[in-house]
Amino acid sequence: MDVLVTYKLNNGQSDPMTATVLQNAEVLASGKKIAADPEGKAADVAEVTLLLTPGDAAKAVLASNQGTIHFVLRNGVDTGEEKTAPVQMAQLSGVAPNIAPKAVTKVSLAPIHEAKPRNTIETVSGDKSTSASF
Prior knowledge:
mainly beta, 2 helices, 4-stranded antiparallel sheet, 134 residues
């Protein structure tokens, strides 16, 4: 199972993004938990228990505090991990994201002079003659 988080950056960007936090996490249990609230009413809570390293657990907790967590099932034989960049809403719609342009560096190029051909081959066939230079 992969764990993804959808969140908004705190820099004023309004476009939400989704990033993969954990890949190929092992699921120990999933289901519903009936937990009593302080007033004695039952609350229906969806629950997933994952087997994680302490580092991966820290990533999952941080992600859950920053946005909405999503669990994505994988094919059982797919155990590979990929480096994936966060996906923005603009990428789903095919519109380029609004990213500030990078600084442009001016490069001065020397004028290009046409190189003179070094080799010439002349082919004579009957009364016709052709030349090729390279």
